[in-house]
């Protein structure tokens, strides 16, 4: 199955502190396992509860066999720190949309 997947990154809650001051500067990186393009949200500084409200589109070549990788990172002056990751099968996304619309994860 081929098409366009639209993903909205809304927010995160209770992220672990990554900086000395007990906060983080989080951003989200998303990509399809079989794709080459990475999409990245803006960095939200000094928070453990960031709000992004950003939408990204991915061209999907094989929805039945691809994965959406969603990673959260902490932005630092000299690099980035890993916070966490979520992996979604696109077949799950297709089923949820067919059963009642977009889902919040």
From TrEMBL:
Spell out the InterPro entries in the cross-references: C2_dom, C2_domain_sf
| Record keywords, A-Z | Calcium, Metal-binding
Instruction: Give Gene Ontology CC terms.
Output: membrane
Name residues in a coiled coil: none
The entry lists its GO molecular-function terms as: calcium ion binding
Keyword Metal-binding (UniProt) = yes
Domain of life of the native organism? Eukaryota
SMART domains, per the entry: C2 (SM00239)
Where does the record place the C2 domain? Answer: 1-105
Q: What is this protein called?
A: C2 domain-containing protein
């Amino acid at each position: 199955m081929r098409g366009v997947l639209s993903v909205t990154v809304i927010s995160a809650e209770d992220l672990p502190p990554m900086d000395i001051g007990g906060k983080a500067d989080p951003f989200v990186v998303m990509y399809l396992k079989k794709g080459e393009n990475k999409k990245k949200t803006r960095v939200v500084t000094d928070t453990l509860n960031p709000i992004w409200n950003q939408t990204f589109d991915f061209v999907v070549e094989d929805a039945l066999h691809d994965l959406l990788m969603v990673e959260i990172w902490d932005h630092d002056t000299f690099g980035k720190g890993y916070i966490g990751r979520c992996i979604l099968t696109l077949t799950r996304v297709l089923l949820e949309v067919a059963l009642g619309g977009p889902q919040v994860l």
